[in-house]
Design goal:
104 residues
Length: 104
């Protein structure tokens, strides 16, 4: 498939690399995904691209540490809703401010 449409494959690669750059930290992506993307880039573009070389074991440890730091879904709602700048609390403050303004 890649041999039939190298232009399309290159466009997909650009989109995938753009997606990777758009996240706050590439550690959110599984290491296997990033490693496969780098290998695919070398294959499609037919270049060595040493700038894509990584210590994949270290990258995997970083990814696992990132996953371990993520709150479980059952705790997430409580943590978000108790944060003073969550949308719910911001709206409550805005509504209270409007009420105070109309009471004056």
């Amino acid at each position: 498939m890649l041999a039939r449409s190298p232009e399309l494959a290159e466009k997909w690669l650009r989109a995938l690399f753009a997606l990777q750059r758009a996240v706050v930290d590439v550690a959110v992506f599984p290491t296997w995904w990033r490693q496969t993307l780098h290998e695919l880039a070398r294959l499609v573009l037919d270049h060595e691209m040493p700038h894509l070389d990584r210590d994949w074991e270290a990258e995997d440890q970083t990814h696992r540490a990132h996953l371990d730091a993520i709150l479980p879904i059952d705790q997430l709602k409580e943590v978000i809703n108790t944060h003073p700048n969550c949308q719910v609390n911001v709206r409550k403050r805005a509504a209270a401010a409007r009420e105070d303004a109309t009471d004056i």
